[in-house]
Amino acid sequence: QVQLVESGGGDVQPGGSLRLSCAASRSIFDIRQMGWYRQAPGKQREFVASITPGDGTTTVAASVKGRFTISRDNAKDTVYLQMNSLNSEDTAIYYCNVVAHNQRKGPVNVWGQGTQVTVSS
């Protein structure tokens, strides 16, 4: 079954906004962290933002600080990424990431399929 369902990507002009959503299946237990990574053309995948469901603590990459905000709805196991003041450098495939704790193996990463964000004029 699909464990992470992403939505909200699309095309936007510079200066515009988008909100990404990622819903985790209830089959994923003991989620410790939810967040976003992105991969731009010709570049490696990079960290964007993360949030801890337990206390809501957030971490945001310097490249998007002040423009992007991450939030969550614990009841729905959903994480959001509000992206404002978008520019061409934000063009990338955005991947949802969940870190769950397995009692035997420790942290386990679960990845979404990715959603395309294209910023162009």
Notable traits:
121 residues, globular, 55% strand, mainly beta, single chain
User: How many strands, what sense, and barrel or not for the largest sheet?
Assistant: 7 strands, mixed
Distance between the termini: 38 Å
N-to-C SSE string, H for helix and E for strand:
EEEEEEEEEEE
* Nearest-integer average pLDDT: 95
Envelope shape: globular
Per DSSP, the total helix count is 0
Provide the helix percentage: under 10%
Give an account of the 3D structure.
The chain is mainly beta and 121 residues long. 0% of the residues lie in helices and 55% in strands. The chain contains no helices and eleven strands. It has strands at residues 4-7, 10-12, 18-24, 31-39, 46-51, 58-60, 68-73, 78-83, 92-102, 106-111, 115-119. The strands form two sheets. Strands 2, 4, 5, 6, 9, 10 and 11 form a seven-stranded mixed sheet that branches. A hairpin with a 6-residue loop joins β5 and β6. It is globular and about 50 Å long. The N and C termini lie far apart (38 Å). The mean pLDDT is 95.
